[in-house]
Structure formats: structure tokens, C-alpha cells
Amino acid sequence: MPKTLADIKKSLDGHLGKRLLLKANGGRKKTVECAGVLSETYHAVFVVELDQEDNACKRVSYSYTDILTEAVEITFLDDAQIAIAK
């Protein structure tokens, strides 16, 4: 991943609307893993629309700092990976 917040935002802007796997620190040694679509990017945060059947909430947002500090890991899926996941 890029090394600055501006580079991270620019990288995410290029992936708007694409499916992804999100792995985030849930606190107290818990890790949250979920799938969704990168829906919006703002000046300081980005929004992911989560798959409804797997999650109670439908949207989550994280800051670009979360990616920089590796509290959140994002893996974008290509078409072959999406077909396997379904």
C-alpha cells in the first residue's frame, strides 16, 4: 500500500465500486472480516457498503490512517475471485 494519506486516498479513488474483503481490528484481540463494495471516499474517510446477509450493519467507514497504521487491511477482488466466493 502507499506510504502517505494522499496516496492511499488516490489509490482508493481508483477502486470505487469494486468488491473487496475487509479485515479490521475489532479490539480485545478480535479481528472482524467482512465483504462489501467500496462506495465513497471523502477527504478523511472512506465508506464500505457491506453484504447484508453477513452483517448486522450495512455501512462502515474508516479513516485512511487506519490503512496506514495497518489497523484495517483491504483486498480488492477480481472477477475470478468474486465467482469463487459466491
Automatic annotation (TrEMBL):
Domain of life from the UniProt record: Bacteria
Bilayer-crossing regions: none
Biological process per Gene Ontology, one example term: regulation of DNA-templated transcription
Signal peptide feature range: none
InterPro entries: Protein_Veg
This protein's name: ABC transporter permease
Species classification: Bacteria, Bacillati, Bacillota, Bacilli, Bacillales
